[in-house]
Amino acid sequence: MKPFKKCKKCNAYTLKDTCPHCNASTNNPIPAKFSPEDKYGSYRRTAKAELRKEGSL
Ligand SMILES: [Zn+2]
Question: In order of start, what are the domains of the chain with their CATH numbers?
Answer without folding.
Answer: 5-55 (2.20.28)
